[in-house]
From TrEMBL:
One Pfam family hit: TsaD
Compartments it resides in: Mitochondrion
Function: Required for the formation of a threonylcarbamoyl group on adenosine at position 37 (t(6)A37) in mitochondrial tRNAs that read codons beginning with adenine. Probably involved in the transfer of the threonylcarbamoyl moiety of threonylcarbamoyl-AMP (TC-AMP) to the N6 group of A37. Involved in mitochondrial genome maintenance.
Catalytic activity reported: L-threonylcarbamoyladenylate + adenosine(37) in tRNA = N(6)-L-threonylcarbamoyladenosine(37) in tRNA + AMP + H(+)
Protein name per the record: N(6)-L-threonylcarbamoyladenine synthase
Length: 466
């Protein structure tokens, strides 16, 4: 089974989106069609940028239902991409802006009598991800660029995640311009400005990245074992009663865990306060059942993450209950869900504070003003509460905390469009011999050379001119 999620369902009216950013129609913005197929989401977007204001003309995705496998099944996801990519592209074409100038740069859409503007370039996720799945989107994107005779840009999936807040700032700026009629609103700098720090947390990645420029990203910390999203997904399947999992018909297990732990939403953790010191973090939390979660590397300041402790702690608790012939009550399951999230989020926050302290010691020029949280786990509102509380409690209240809206935290083609636009405007193109990349680091200091490391990049002599 497949589930379709469109922006009309996620945020009413965004696909046609007049209230998001009505770009001045007397001027021609940079227009792209973008494709995302790195994992189990097939997504297509059409995005336009005028100066620093953005309008999303179209954003839709189909998520492969792999709930029967209790996780992502790469082959089933691949089949979903193959079945849905063409229909999504076909649907997107009807949302290309109507051509009003430069009639030679147009597309004749069969379902419409009006000529549509041809995208200035096409972009698609090149990696990292499941290689076969990536090829579906990559080859489709390259084929469209050949058919339309426009450039192609292969996008780094994780770079797109960390740049998403910059997309959101341009969407908001366009809205401000529309409401105030201030034509200078779109000329303001895009935020967050470099340098900034990012937590990229998803089912496949957990890393802390310092971004000094569009292509210079230093990985300051990463997980040595399991990604945070994967650990929470596994915890969800262990903690949530089976009948609730079966009735949910969803593979977004992390979201299910948050909803199960906090049925009243933010009201259930409104009184959360971060530990005032590292010492306070290590004090065990007492509860009526006698168990506790212990943060890894309790006495180390090593900048690394580890989330296997969640699964091992749960296995120990469940095994002890089974050996004693005891059942786990609904109340205890809620407590387990809350503690699994609290300890894992505090571990993430604590190491992030250590990184900020390290940067501060290197001098004012190394400090950052913004902490970005992106990736699927960034949609967890309890995580954002924990991070904000840690920043305030540990002397970093001046550091801004930003995350995209939930529908842009998970994989989507709008973020691919934005990353493609930033690379395109910086003069980068991808040649048609490029291939999908399963593993692709962000950091140029690592063996593969980071974003610009793989073969296939070309430098355009003439950048796009607004």
């Amino acid at each position: 089974m497949l589930s379709r999620v469109s922006t009309s369902a996620l945020r009413k009216g965004l696909c046609t989106a007049p209230r998001w950013s009505l770009l001045p129609r007397s001027r021609r913005g940079l227009l792209t069609l973008a494709i995302e197929t790195s994992c189990d989401d097939t997504s297509v977007a059409i995005v336009e940028k005028e100066s620093n204001a953005v309008q999303i003309h179209f954003l839709d995705k189909v998520t492969c239902d792999t709930s029967a496998y209790q996780g992502i099944h790469p082959v089933v996801a691949l089949e979903s991409h193959q079945e849905n990519i063409a229909s999504l592209v076909h649907k997107a074409l009807a949302h290309l802006p109507v051509a009003k100038h430069e009639k030679q740069q147009t597309i004749n859409v069969s379902s419409d009598s009006e000529l549509r503007r041809k995208p200035d370039f096409v972009c698609a996720t090149r990696g990292p991800g499941f290689r076969s799945n990536l090829f579906v989107g990559l080859d489709t994107g390259k084929a469209l660029s050949v058919a339309w005779q426009v450039p192609f840009v292969g996008v780094h999936h994780m770079q797109a995640h960390l740049l998403t807040p910059r997309l959101v700032s341009c969407m908001n700026r366009g809205q401000t311009q529309e409401n105030s009629q201030d034509v200078t609103a779109s000329e303001q700098p895009i935020t967050p400005e470099f340098p900034f720090l990012s937590i990229l947390a998803s089912g496949g990645h957990t890393m802390l990245v310092k971004s000094s420029s569009l292509t210079d990203h230093e990985i300051m910390a990463s997980t040595v074992d399991r990604a945070l999203g994967e650990a929470l997904d596994k915890a969800s399947r262990e903690i949530i009663p089976p009948f609730l999992l079966q009735t949910s018909k969803s593979t977004m297990y992390g979201k299910l865990l948050e909803e199960f732990a906090f049925p009243n939403g933010k009201a259930d953790y409104a009184d959360y306060q971060a530990p005032k010191s590292r010492h306070d973090e290590l004090i065990p939390r007492e509860n009526p059942w006698g168990w506790s979660f212990t943060e890894p590397w309790a006495h180390s300041r090593q900048l690394q993450y580890s989330f296997c402790f969640i699964g091992s702690t749960l296995a120990r608790i469940f095994s002890a209950r089974e050996a004693a012939g005891q059942t786990i009550s609904h109340e205890e399951r809620i407590a387990l869900a809350r503690e699994a999230m609290r300890t894992s989020f505090e571990h993430l926050a604590s190491r992030t504070i250590m990184a900020l302290e390290s940067l501060a010691k290197q001098g004012p020029e190394k400090e950052v003003k913004t902490l970005v949280v992106s990736g699927g786990v960034a949609a967890n509102q309890f995580l954002m509460t924990v991070l904000r509380s840690f920043l305030d409690a540990r002397g970093f209240g001046h550091v801004g905390l930003v995350a995209p809206p939930p529908y842009l935290c998970t994989d989507n083609a709008a973020m691919i469009a934005w990353a493609g636009m930033e690379m395109f405007e910086a003069g980068w193109r991808t040649n048609l011999t490029s291939r999908a990349i399963r593993k692709w680091s962000l950091d140029p200091r690592e063996g593969d050379g980071g974003v610009l490391g793989p073969f296939g990049w070309e430098r355009a002599e003439d950048h796009f001119v607004q």
